[in-house]
Amino acid sequence: MLPAPKEHKEITVDPKLFDGYVGQYQLGPNFILTVTREGDQLFTQATGQPKVQVFPESQRDFFYKVVDAQITFETDANGRATSLTLHQKGTNMPAKRIP
Fold first, then answer.
1. In a domain, 35, yes or no
2. pLDDT tens per residue, range 11-33
């Protein structure tokens, strides 16, 4: 039997943090995760999929409410994300930021 999904608890973070995460991240040859900010909310949209809101559980860790998946941003000294990792179905999929 599979373990129950981890309970995720949404926290409040400064929405200015999101500006450092906005961009495109290459998950595969033709698979890009686009991160956007709308006001004080952060969204992701994978190639060919609808845009979905993600929710903070730390300053760098976010989770989806519509699917059991999480994102962790890797940032530089200025708080700008250089990559992210998508955690889903027991796998970790790293994605480098693309220009």
1. yes
2. 999 999 999 999 999 999 999 99
